[in-house]
Amino acid sequence: FEAGEIPDIRGLARELGSLGLLGMHLEGYGCAGMSATDYGLACLELEASDSGVRSLVSVQGSLAMFAIWRWGSEEQKQEWLPRMATGEAIGCFGLTEADHGSDPGSMRTTAKRDGGDWVLNGSKMWITNCSVAEVAVVWAQTDEGIRGFVVPTNTPGFSAPVIKHKLSLRASVTSELVMDNVSLPADAVLPEVRGLKGPLACLNEARVGIVWGSMGAARASFEAAVRYSQERVQFGKPIAGFQLTQKKLADMYLELSKGMLLAIHLGRMKDAGTLRPEQVSLGKLNNVREALEICRTARTILGANGISLEYPVIRHANNLESVLTYEGTVEMHTLVVGQALTGVDAFR
Predict the structure, then answer these.
(1) Residue 143 carries which DSSP code?
(2) pLDDT bucket at 323, cuts 50 / 70 / 90
(3) φ, ψ (nearest 5 deg) of residue 71
(4) Inter-CA distances, 187 with 72, 75, 142, 263, Å
(5) CA separation for the pair 238, 304 (Å, rounded)
(6) Which of 261, 260, 248 is nearest to 291 (CA)?
(7) Are 261 and 267 in contact (CB under 8 A)?
(8) Candidates 79, 134, 327, 331; catalytic one
(9) How far is it, in rounded angstroms, from Cα 314 to Cα 308?
(10) Three-state SS sequence of 181-232
């Protein structure tokens, strides 16, 4: 985080792959075939380390790999999924554009037919893993509606300028994705889906990981606050002995416990095949918002030390500022829940 990079991201990806963490909730093609709850628990522990590490795993497994696994041809699956499961190949997911975040249906990236080929033009923004990826799943406007494409990143015309000067998710590789007359064969398109249903299904997969992962960041900050309160002496006793500090700790633990129970419940619903998109939105909205508040409260217990990277608190708080708005902003998830409650679409 302090250096703003993972020194050996490919080595880390291979290590994560060797543990079975990449695409771990997918079946076949070298994937571990674990449950959604198992995947959530892994995200919890990864994000207790750093949100950037969990993002690497989420983007690889729940966005890039899931898109190919769910919507791809058998040839695409055989070509990419086994290598992605081991971390030999890193993937990214190109949906968000600089001018089209919450409204991906208005994307300007295009794919046009040229004989038997496709030619892609456009750019995507805030793309995790892109500059180190071997393959990108890119969504584009076509004459047939929005389609997904499997794009090897060594294709001429593809580039991935790294985004610098981030003060959040600094341990995550984030890039722009640029395509200038990128020519792809006819079989590069994901054959099993048309429209926004494709990318939105992938985002729901990743959001389940965020429901859990945000609680990992919250837990790490909470535990740091408890330890610090027991060690920090003011007015002749540890600050843990003051009522106002105990109230903060009790409130933090209350929200952490509720968030964990919500994550477990949603994970089990997903395993049972009963989880609906608005329930995922409910989990993402609640857990990230409460995790951020836990980190901010922990910062107050640590005082000035709360802004030091000698402790994990300010790093988790900074990271969660990104997690709060990526893969669906607070406003969008609020409106998803509102629509489910009222039956009225307030998006437009």
Answers:
(1) T
(2) very high
(3) -115, -5
(4) 10, 9, 15, 38
(5) 16
(6) 260
(7) no
(8) 327
(9) 7
(10) EEEEEHHHECCCCCCCHHHHHHHHHHHHHHHHHHHHHHHHHHHHHHHHHHHC
pLDDT value for 347: 85
Q: Determine the distance from the C-alpha atom of residue 137 to the mean position of all C-alpha atoms in its chain, rounded to a whole number.
A: 15
- For the segment 278-301, what is each residue's pLDDT rounded down to a tens digit? 999 999 999 999 999 999 999 999
Told to judge if 327 belongs to the known catalytic residues of this protein, a careful annotator would answer yes
**Six token digits for residue 319:** 């990271």
Terminal CA-CA length for the chain: 38
Q: Is the pTM of this model over 0.85?
A: yes
Q: Which DSSP string corresponds to 16-78?
A: HHHTT-TTTTS-STT-----HHHHHHHHHHHHHH-HHHHHHHHIIIIIIIHHHHHHS-HHHHH
Q: How far apart are CA 215 and CA 192, in angstroms?
A: 34
**Strand, coil or helix: what is 160?**
coil
- DSSP secondary structure code for residue 302 in this structure: H
Which of 105, 111, 205, 107 is closest to 151 using CA atoms? 111
| Secondary structure letter of residue 100 according to DSSP | B
Q: Residue 43 and residue 91: Cα distance in Å, rounded?
A: 18
Q: What is the pLDDT of residue 102?
A: 87
Map residue 146 onto helix, strand or coil: strand
Q: Which residues contact 27 (CB under 8 A, 6 or more apart)?
A: 33
- State the DSSP code for 268: H
* 39 contact partners, CB below 8 Å, separation of at least 6: 24, 25, 61, 208, 209, 212, 267
Q: What is the residue-wise DSSP string for 318-333?
A: HHHHHHTTTTS-HHHH
Dihedral sign (CA 180, 111, 206, 42)? negative
| Tokens at 237, concatenated | 């006793």
